[in-house]
């Protein structure tokens, strides 16, 4: 770097999706959403809920990037977030220091936030569970962070291999977290209904004794399969 960056860069304004469209994804199964987006959109498998019993959420993303061993950006995101938002904090997948603990999780819960998702670590798992905020992270470690920056709030980030922008819709459950880009929100809602209908039909077939999907059976019988 030619010069030291600011301690924190904040971009507060971003386009928010229609609340009714966000609500349309409430309770959506993450695997169904992925199927509605051509099999992609889920964060890396290591990012899991601190409490699998309190993992379901949906909300609008407020992004931030906190440098390793620092969490100043997290507080900047808390400042601009609204009730129902999901803070998406990129932490460079840092593995030596926690990004967040139970007290900050409690503050987010008090502010009405829907969830916190990070590719970093957390600490005070028992307290986080007690706070009641769905919190997804890559693991637990007691080491604490500093507040020296640098960092950013409101700018695009990448978490768990998936690009995220403020205004995207985030959905989580016990399996993981899925990012629905705002640009394809309408199409995803439409396809989600189709996926759910197909899943219902497939579940009925399994309960009825099905041993193979029709599409897989057709492929196995096709010339595309070489049998020796």
Question: Could you give the distance between the termini?
Answer: 60 Å
Provide the β-strand percentage band.
15-25%
Overall spatial form: elongated
Instruction: State the major sheet.
Output: 9 strands, mixed
The oligomerization state is single chain
Task: Spell the H/E element sequence.
Answer: EHHEEHEEHEEHEEEEEEHH
- The share of residues in helices is 25-40%
Radius of gyration: 20 Å
Number of strands: 13
Q: Kindly state the mean pLDDT as a whole number?
A: 96
Which spans have pLDDT < 50 for at least 5 consecutive residues?
A: none
Number of H/I helices: 7
Which structural category fits the helices and strands? alpha/beta
Concise synopsis of the structure shown:
This protein has 228 residues and is of the alpha/beta class. Helices cover 30% and strands 22% of the residues.
List keywords for this structure.
30% helix; single chain; elongated; 13 strands; two-stranded parallel ribbon; nine-stranded mixed beta sheet; 228 residues; alpha/beta
How does this structure look, described?
With 228 residues, this protein is an alpha/beta fold. The chain is built from 7 helices and 13 strands. It has helices spanning 19-23, 30-36, 72-80, 102-110, 125-131, 185-207, 214-221, and strands at residues 9-10, 48-49, 57-66, 85-90, 98-100, 115-118, 121-122, 135-137, 151-153, 157-159, 162-164, 169-173, 176-180. Strands 1, 2, 3, 4, 6, 8, 9, 12 and 13 form a 9-stranded mixed β-sheet that branches. The chain is elongated, with a radius of gyration of 20 Å. The model has no long low-confidence stretch (mean pLDDT 96).
């Amino acid at each position: 770097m030619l010069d030291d960056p600011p301690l924190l860069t904040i971009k507060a304004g971003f386009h928010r999706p229609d609340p009714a469209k966000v609500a349309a994804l409430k309770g959506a199964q993450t695997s169904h959403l992925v199927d509605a987006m051509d099999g992609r959109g889920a964060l890396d498998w290591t990012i899991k809920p601190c409490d699998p019993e309190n993992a379901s959420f949906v909300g609008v993303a407020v992004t931030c990037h906190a440098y390793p061993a620092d969490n100043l950006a997290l507080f900047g995101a808390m400042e601009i977030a609204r009730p129902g938002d999901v803070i998406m904090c990129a932490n460079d997948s840092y593995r030596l220091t926690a990004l967040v603990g139970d007290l900050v999780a409690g503050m987010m819960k008090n502010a009405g936030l829907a969830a916190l998702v990070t590719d970093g670590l957390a600490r005070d798992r028992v307290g986080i569970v007690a706070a009641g905020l769905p919190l997804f992270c890559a693991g637990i470690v007691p080491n604490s962070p500093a507040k020296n920056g640098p960092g950013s709030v409101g700018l695009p980030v990448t978490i768990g291999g998936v690009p995220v922008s403020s205004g995207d819709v985030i959905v989580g459950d016990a399996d993981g977290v899925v990012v629905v880009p705002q640009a394809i929100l309408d199409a995803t809602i439409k396809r989600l209904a189709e996926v759910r209908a197909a899943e219902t039909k497939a579940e009925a077939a399994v309960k009825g004794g099905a041993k193979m999907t029709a599409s897989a059976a057709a492929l196995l019988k096709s010339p595309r399969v070489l049998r020796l």
